[in-house]
Amino acid sequence: MPTSLPEDVSEIKSKVKEFLEYMEVEKGASPLTLRNYRHYLFRFLSWMEKEKIRQKLKDINPDTVREYRLFLSRFPDGKGGTLSRRTQGYHVIAIRSFLKWCIKNDQDVMSPDKIDLPKINERQVKFLNGEQIDRLLNAPNMSKITGIRDKAILEVLFSTGLRVSELCKLDRDKIDLKRREFGIVGKGGRARVVFLSSRSTGWVEKYLAARDDNYNPLFIRHSGKMDAADTDEKMRLTPRSVQRMVKKYARKVQITVDVTPHVLRHSFATDLLVAGADIRSVQEMLGHKNIATTQIYTHVTNKQLRDVHEAFHGKGN
To answer: Among this protein's residues, is 280 annotated catalytic?
Structure first.
């Protein structure tokens, strides 16, 4: 798959380049979003080239899109199967977004509304119950600084619902431990205020008190070769290392759910909603752009309410 546009760009490729520049500059899309859109659109263009379809904007028509979707449905996923319907949907969303941008810029193109999105089964939200959360949070060994750090990380993840990338970007001088809050710029460049529980604040304070360095990142590595000349970014804990750490402790306390930092984020949101928090507040705390994203958790809380209803309603009759 090409990673950059060739010099002899076709009409569509030229417009795709402009579209990606618009996404980056005007929409403030993240590098990951840009990478994904580039990947999905280039796959479409590569398919058009292979099928010897002219690459004019008017050649994106219902017949072309139908044939491409058939191609996607049979495309190998590298694991012995084919692309999931969700992944196929991402490809289609990229084409629809591109067409919407074309219309906005007065290009004569097919209406994106003519492209239906594939029906996808509702997302199954994985989350931990209270007993599992307690086991996980108590898993680290407090006799080592790495254990104190890991305990602080787990407490902060469950206390805030932070994405793992957001957690790893935290710096000491940006956290107000007295007020137990800090500002963060999350996905899509959206800023929000994040609040810490008193318990997670206490563990962050214990971790910082155990450190004897001047590195600014809130969470740093404490293993491997360390040099006084190491930069902050070289010492900063990576999202991958936090993911491995969470999985390690989940295995240690024998939690059968595939636990990731994002599962802790789900657990944070579910815990709030089950306790009675309104969904708009949870949306704000999670940093979701659209309420629809937050509503995936209502399936979980609706079941909780159903269980309460069945357990208590009509018992006096």
So the answer is: no
Identify the active-site residue in 163, 169, 236, 266: 163
User: Is 66 in the active site?
Assistant: no
pTM of the model: 0.64
**SS3 state at 162:** coil
Residue numbers in the chain where pLDDT is lower than 70: 1-9, 120-124, 226-229, 299-317
Catalytic residue flag (residue 54): no
Q: How distant, in Å, are the alpha carbons of 72, 168, 228, 234 from that of 225?
A: 46, 20, 10, 11
Active site residue 252: no
pLDDT confidence of residue 141 = 95
**Domain extent at residue 86:** 11-114
| Overall domain count for the chain | 2
Q: Are residues 210 and 298 in the same domain?
A: yes
List the CATH number of the domain containing 66: 1.10.150.130
CB of 130 within 8 A of CB of 137? no
- Active-site residue, 262 included: yes
Residues 164 and 271 in one domain: yes
